[in-house]
Specification:
Blueprint (H helix, E strand, L loop, with lengths): L11 E5 L12 H12 L7 E4 L11 H22 L4 E5 L5 H13 L4 E4 L10 H16 L5 E6 L13 H8 L4 E7 L2 H9 L1 H4 L6 E4 L4 H5 L5 H15 L6 E3 L7 H13 L2 H17 L2 E3 L2 E3 L2 H11 L17 H21 L7 E2 L2 E2 L12
Helix pairs in contact: 1-2, 2-3, 4-5, 10-11, 11-13, 12-13
Amino acid sequence: MQSLSEYLPRPGLSTPIVTILSPKGEVLEQEQRAAVRYIIQGGRGADILFAAGTTGEWDRMDNRGRQTVSRIVVDECRRVSLAIGRRIEAWVGITAHTRAETLANLKYAIELDSDAAVVAPLSIRDAGSPPDFVEREVGGLFEKLGRTIPVFLYDNADIAAPGRSPHLHTRDVKRMARLEYVRGVKVTAGKAVLGNYTRAASHFKLSHEFAIYAGDPYLIFDLFAPAEGIAGSLRHRWNRYVTQRSMPYGVVAGPANVLPREWQRAWRVCRAGNSQLIASYGGGVERLRAACTFRRTGKPYVPVIACYKAALKELGVVESDAVARATPSLEGAERREFAARVERMFKCNAEELEPGWVSEYDAHPALGAPGVLRGHG
């Protein structure tokens, strides 16, 4: 394992992998491994896999389940990396509802030789202030074990514990960023909150590289859009003001569970500022967001985790598309409609995107050809 002094955060596409569960809520190891391989796409998909995150339903599993999926993802990432000759990093989400379980998960992440740990301090119900927890308790465990791994903070208002602030305070992030093992933050929020981080980026990097990852992946199409035309020029100036010209180091894309190649290419063309390809891949990945959107009682209903798992089943990657208890699910008619939408999405992407950048399973294009898309029962 790389020493902490040599470690640089990995740029690029980070995919928070779904957890493949049986109807009883057990992690299905072989199907989880298949999902890892699909998301990596032989080196054309994710640069980083993030296990036991929000997309992985950490908050709806017990600690045994969190540790099980972490073990599988770390091990399979290592196997695939050796096979393709390119290192794909495996980050372990250690967040649990209590301090004790969170620290147990950190210890387990170290035992696994994971590339990094990810923690959402505001989601731990009994953790106290984030800087105190990260410095005293996380640092204390590192000192006790005599081993340290990189730690990335996770800021997501949707999973903040009751009574906690929805977002980390910038002053707290500055304090935590001074710790040698805190190497970045994953921010699932809009442009304004992300801008708070990017504007303060120079303060975070006083002692070492500190990476900021955009957790709302669709923001990259706005943030990196070239200044073309009057509207584009105004948007470009506003984005520069909001971010102080400091752009995200990487993108965290839950939809890349289904479209790993498309999101990898989207990140690259956004970074390159290619307006034509930005529009093409923006449209390609937007099809999945549209496919995941239904209406119930006159309101939008977007069960993304259930949809990602259903798509993997349609592609033949997994057999089970079960979700954890309390995770929004698809009803029968919605499930059938979603299957049809997925098939149309891949056909459109194959027609409109560059060859080699449409996700495949088992070296077959993810299209509606016989034997490729599977029935939904």
